[in-house]
Specification:
The complex is a heterotrimer of chains A (469), B (437) and C (129). By secondary structure, chain A is of the alpha/beta class. Chain A is built from 16 helices and ten strands. Chain B is an alpha/beta fold and 437 residues long. Chain B has a seven-stranded mixed beta sheet with strand order 2-8-7-6-5-3-4, with helices on both faces. In chain B, β11 and β12 form a beta hairpin. Chain C is α+β, with helices and mostly antiparallel strands. Chain C is globular, with a radius of gyration of 13 Å. The mean pLDDT of chain C is 91. The chains are: A alpha/beta (469), B alpha/beta (437), C alpha+beta (129).
Amino acid sequence: MNNRLYGNLIFELSKEGRKGYSLPRNYFGDYEIPSSMCRAKEAALPACDELTVVRHYTNLSTNNFGVDTGFYPLGSCTMKYNPKLNEEMAAMPQFQNLHPLQPEETVMGAKALVLFLEKALCALTGLAHFTFKPYAGAHGELTGLMTIDNYHRSRGDMARKKVIVPDSAHGTNPASAAVCGLEILEVKSTADGLVDLEDLERLVAQEGPNIAAMMMTNPNTLGLFETSIPEIAKLIHDCGGLMYYDGANLNPMLGVCRPGDMGFDVMHINLHKTFSTPHGGGGPGAGPVGVREGLQDFFPNVSPYQGNFAVMMRACAYILSLGGEQIKNVGPLATLNANYIKESLKDVYELPIDGLCCHEFVFDGLKDKSTGVTTMDVAKRLLDYGYHAPTIYFPLLFHESLMIEPTENESKETLDAFIAVMRQIAEEAKTNPDEVKSAPHNTPIGRVDDVLAAKHPIVTYQQMLNDQD
Amino acid sequence: MYKYFPHTEDDLQAMMEKVGVKNLDELYAQIPEHIRFKGDYELPRAASELEVRQVFEELGNKNKQLTCYAGMGVYDHYTPSVIPNLLQRSEFLTSYTPYQAEISQGTLHYIFEYQSMMTQLTGMDISNASMYDGTTACAEAMMMAVAAGKKVNKVLVTGCMNPLTYEVLKTYALHRNIEIEVLPIRDGITSLDDVKAALAQGGVAGVIVQQPNVYGIVEDFTGFAEACHEQKALFIMDSVAADLAVLKTPGEWGADIAVGDGQSLGIPMQFGGPYVGYMCCTEKLIRKMPGRIVGMTQDNRGQRAFVLTLQAREQHIRRQKATSNICSNQSLMALWVTVYLSLMGKEGLKEAAQLSYAGAHYLCDELLKTGHFTLAFDKPFFNEFYVKYDGDANALYNRMIDVGIMGGVRLEEGFLFAVTEKRTKKEIDNLVKIAAL
Amino acid sequence: MAKVIEGLYYSESHEYVKVEGNIGIIGITDYAQKALGNVVYVDMPEVDDEVEAGAEFGAVESVKAASDLNSPVSGTVVEVNEALEDAPELINQDAYENWIIKVEMSDESELENLMDAAAYEAFCEKEAH
């Protein structure tokens, strides 16, 4: 990593007179764009030759950390290996050059892939139909909630505008509900981290006719399986609501348990988590939504075509590669890896809820809190040792949440090395706490001043220049 | 065991012992037996790399490769070979949301560049880190206008909007309780008088227009922004990104929010996605903007650094009060666009736009010369145009498909043709020959 | 220990009202500013906007949190503290000195629903545990 050498913006490498493109000659004769249509002020874009551009972005990439760089135990994000074959398949020109409005008979191969993926996801989830229109997980959530809203509206059941979510839910759940015009009711968790059935019964008794759905992940955001799921589903169904499965945590269920069999009616899947498509620095993902038979008529139109097709192609390649027999191992191996880390560290990190977890688990900071070393410090120190940090300060149930998800692709050696470093940081917290509190030291940049960024937002190069004046 | 699973028998034993289970099944002992999945998935058996490749090749050959004159929001522009190569850098490809700024400067840095370039293209002050696509970006702009307004929930939408975008707007509006009023089409364009009359009714949060509009026509929006602002409504423009290299910008038209799809900036059509939506706005609206934003700051060593900023607007903090439920941007596609714009610069964009413009006007002229086609509206267009056909349009459409031409998009009375810099004179002459039969 | 000032009225969502005639001067308490950390932005209403007791009228943002502002009293906004637009950190320096809005109260009896200094101090004490 070499931020010092290549910290320039592409604009700062620009020189008028250079160009990085070549285009065909104009053989069409004199067709001038009328000046009345044209912009008065030119766009100040960089002027660079091709090698400058290639070097700039190649070097930028080295200031990044990806799954291919090292262990990436980011809880709730399922940073599994992104197979190279999938990339090649998604780039095949026979698919890449298809216009989405081409007539059906010219896109039979692409349609066949979509159909294959739908059948595969149905088999893996126990649901009956999928729509591929949603572009991402949050978009899938919104699509699923709209499906539910459409279903209730179709029955003239207009009062059902409330969605129950556990207090441990992802922040997206309430945000998606709000965009869908729905209101959130929070159900409490018990001391052992599961949905409090009594509290749920109370909510259902109070709000029954207003309940559109209950939205949950299983395993939940603490990595714990909601063992009362059949009872929860019955409670919600009996009061006329539907069960929504947030597929963010589907990975440990592969080969183990299907959302359809747990009693869920609607779900979304993050293809970029469970089905190995790359996260791309934050997208593009894909968030297909599946439903029980009969609900497919209520799918909303949330995008023009069939979603992020090239992402779906990668998921197809993954499923084809693993096949029915290997995909069954995904859940158990991911779960074994998580439990192995948990058991190996719980004597030095605070494990608020002991017992078997699924694909991930949450520590509440270091066991020894006397050193003043926080979860943030541990996370930053991990960067020094060449690891990506776990998810921190989520879920909100604990003050010092540190959420670790290793995925099935990591070897025992990788996990052992990570465990050793985590123990070493716990030791450093006692012997040399300042070293940990001021971490990271070995990264291209140190800790950033995010107060400055938020108070005085500079979000473009132009603003940066104006600011210097 | 399997190429993606590194666990040997010994590893498994040692790890299970540490965890305290005798077999992998015991890891799930807490799950009620009757909901466990015990059978086999209805899936094909595991396939080797070679076999997977064969499946894709076989299916790929079932698709027909067509010379593309279709547009309607998705355009067949050229992709410089540098881009797909750089995008396969796995530090970009296999990273996630840049929450850990210290090891994510690559992503944060290019998003800052992306934001800078998009504001240049649109003539606006601020850009977010990108959105899913143009249609959802437009829907987000609609919701943003309603949220920014005070107790107003009506949005005026031009009748000349791409119907695919309009459908998405309708979906979001239904659930969010937003009332959409569609403005009439007046000889292929939006009329300022209609806008003013609708605004005068009151309760309007925003007015959404499209440039070029669905018929490819470049509209004159003189007076639109002023009319909106007089009634405290936001003026929202949905434009094809590449065309803004030459067209009068949303900023110059006085827009408050500029949205659209960035696909035209060298992203392959790939059967509908992924593309990238852009959203820019005035400085005043920055805290109402949905999605991620990257800002500049300093690190504790005094170096320039980039970081996700203004996060208090976002779903993970604001939950149901967030400006939107969007989490991710379309990061890698934003990088695609950034590299494209770095290579093309303003001169390259202008050249490509000029070629597209010339090709489209040449095709139009040649089609009119056949005597079978007439322009649906006598209005200035850019690289897409709507012509009526005096023969059997479906038959002609199929005839073109048969010879490997995607002859535009079928509209009621004829065809919507789009031409990009990729279409050669020879190809266009060939199309005209078939259309003249 | 967070500062609490005698003579002000306090809400459970940590806003205070200082009464001058029929004008209520509203801001967030020292306790609230400490809990939020570095304030980076204050979202304020405009003059002449109506506010309603218990309803949201704006928000205070720090880097990693945002907190809605709920008006302790109903009325019409007569002044907003424009100094906070450029220097939101003033709230951290002195939350009582740097009020957020001034409201012409429409129903002064609403003040009776609020806490006095002693009650608020006890309330914070309880919330901290």
